[in-house]
Amino acid sequence: MTDRRTALLNAAVEQIAARGTRGLRVEDVAQSAGASTALIYHHFGDRSAFLRAALEHIGDRADAYTEPPDGEARVMLLGLLTDEIQDNPEVRTNSAAWGELRDTAVFDAELRPTIARLTRRWVDDIAELIRFGHSDGSIDARVDPLSTGIALSALVEGISGRWLTDQMSTAEGRDTLRTGASALLNAAQTAQVPSQ
Amino acid sequence: MTDRRTALLNAAVEQIAARGTRGLRVEDVAQSAGASTALIYHHFGDRSAFLRAALEHIGDRADAYTEPPDGEARVMLLGLLTDEIQDNPEVRTNSAAWGELRDTAVFDAELRPTIARLTRRWVDDIAELIRFGHSDGSIDARVDPLSTGIALSALVEGISGRWLTDQMSTAEGRDTLRTGASALLNAAQTAQVPSQ
Questions:
Q1: Which sign does the torsion angle of CA B19, B23, B27, B30 carry?
Q2: Which of A42, B13, B79, B189 could form a disulfide with B68 if both were Cys (CB 3.0 to 4.6 A apart)?
Q3: Residues 119 to 148 of A: which have CB under 8 A from any B CB?
Q4: Is the interface score ipTM higher than 0.85?
Q5: Which positions in chain B touch A52 (Cβ < 8 Å)?
Q6: Does the CB of B165 have a partner CB in chain A at under 8 Å?
Q7: pTM
Q8: What does the alpha-carbon distance between residue A36 and residue A188 come to, in Å, rounded to a whole number?
Q9: pLDDT tens digit sequence for B139-177
Q10: Contact A183 B187 (CB under 8 A)
Q11: What one-character-per-residue DSSP string does chain B give?
Q12: With 80 as the cut, is the pLDDT of residue B51 above it?
């Protein structure tokens, strides 16, 4: 039962990444997962609830492929961030579907609470690693976990948009992200420098 | 003649921001600009060429509302960046339409060269201000103009996505952007600190 549900959600993510949210037809998703449209409505309710479930599923998929190896918090965090850009079809699909649903939320207010909650979960994961970095000494104690987490995740989203539209190769995207993220994590060391 | 063309492009940007690219109907744009569909095809060619012209127009509009006052290059640059987020309906509309067209370019390869060229123009404007900052002493000479320009513009796009989906107020968006951008501009001062 759980496998069937996962298969339907994977099919939805694939279709959103390939054709966008507004081109998504529930019947096509059902067909590509070898299921009936009725089963989708049975599991998820209406189309809007199915989109929200797909968004949650994107978050869960990203948790799986951005799991950093144990180590110094700073290294783990840079790994977590750069792993959002990988030469891996699943990562590209997931990133495209996430960007598309976030963009759809500009027009569709029903998606906004889900986007906001998942983004907040992501920011909290980053903030936790920054706090861990305060403890193990790999991140300066003056680096604010929450506001830096927001800036780092926004930088990932901005660079992913360039990568997904072929303005950057995977290697360039990862390098730009690593350099930019390192700068944001070093910011506290220059906090005394007047910024205006 | 030029005014009619501008009116058509403004109407297209409004519709893209309100309903997305894929919901855009050329007839509706013509009607809202008090023109005929034939006039749109006369001025722009096909629908795809009209979308590319709308994208160019978004770039031109942004040039107008992000014109910084004369001053120190660092202050000008922070002004240029933060003015992408303003409590002003035209700025919000423009930003939503830009994000939507960039997202559409993930699926529609025809839009990619225009997105890439306009993004590059924006990055070049930022890089030019960084070089000016090297001259007037307001930006450290070790801050690389091009790679920092790419990271700064990506940060703007990421934070704009949060702002447009109501995850941040205008003030929060501007503050996050100013703090993040300042950190990226201070990065060179910590270049000696091991980043791994």
A1: positive
A2: B79
A3: 119, 147
A4: yes
A5: none
A6: yes
A7: 0.91
A8: 55
A9: 999 999 999 999 999 999 999 999 999 999 999 999 999
A10: yes
A11: -HHHHHHHHHHHHHHHHHH-STT--HHHHHHHTT--HHHHHHHH-SHHHHHHHHHHHHHHHHHHHT-PPSS-HHHHHHHHHHTTS-S-HHHHHHHHHHHHHHHHHHH-GGGHHHHHHHHHHHHHHHHHHHHHHHHHTSS-TTS-HHHHHHHHHHHHHHHHHHHHTTSS-HHHHHHHHHHHHHHHHHGGGGTTS---
A12: yes
Q: Which of A167, A169, A189 to mutate to test the interface with B (most CBs of B within 10 A)?
A: A167
Chain A: give the shortest CA distance to residue B128, in Å. 18
Name every chain B residue with its beta carbon within 8 A of the beta carbon of A156: 158
Q: Does A116 touch chain B (CB under 8 A)?
A: yes
Residue A110 DSSP one-character state: G
Q: Does pLDDT of A21 surpass 50?
A: yes
**Residue A139 is encoded by which pair of tokens?**
């991140």
Is A79 an 8 Å CB contact of chain B? no
User: What value does the mean pLDDT of chain B take?
Assistant: 91
Residue A181 in this model has a pLDDT that exceeds 80: yes
B155 touches chain A (CB under 8 A): yes
Distance CA A13, CA A20 (A): 10
Query: Closest partner residue to A106 among B99, B155, B189, by Cβ?
Result: B99
- Chain B residue numbers with beta carbons less than 8 Å from the beta carbon of A18 are 107
Q: What is the least distance, in Å, from the CA of A5 to any CA of chain B?
A: 26
**Angle, vertex CA B56, rays to CA A165 and CA B82, nearest 5:** 80
pLDDT tens figures, A58-99: 999 998 888 877 889 999 999 999 999 999 999 999 999 999
* SS3 state at B95: helix
| Integer Cα distance of A150 and A124 in angstroms | 9
Kindly state the tokens that stand for A174. Answer: 């990862």
Q: Tell me which of A14-18, A95-99, B87-91, B184-188 is least confident.
A: B184-188
Residue-level pLDDT at B19: 86
Q: For testing the chain B interface, which of A16, A106, A122, A144 should be mutated: the one with the most B CBs within 10 Å?
A: A106
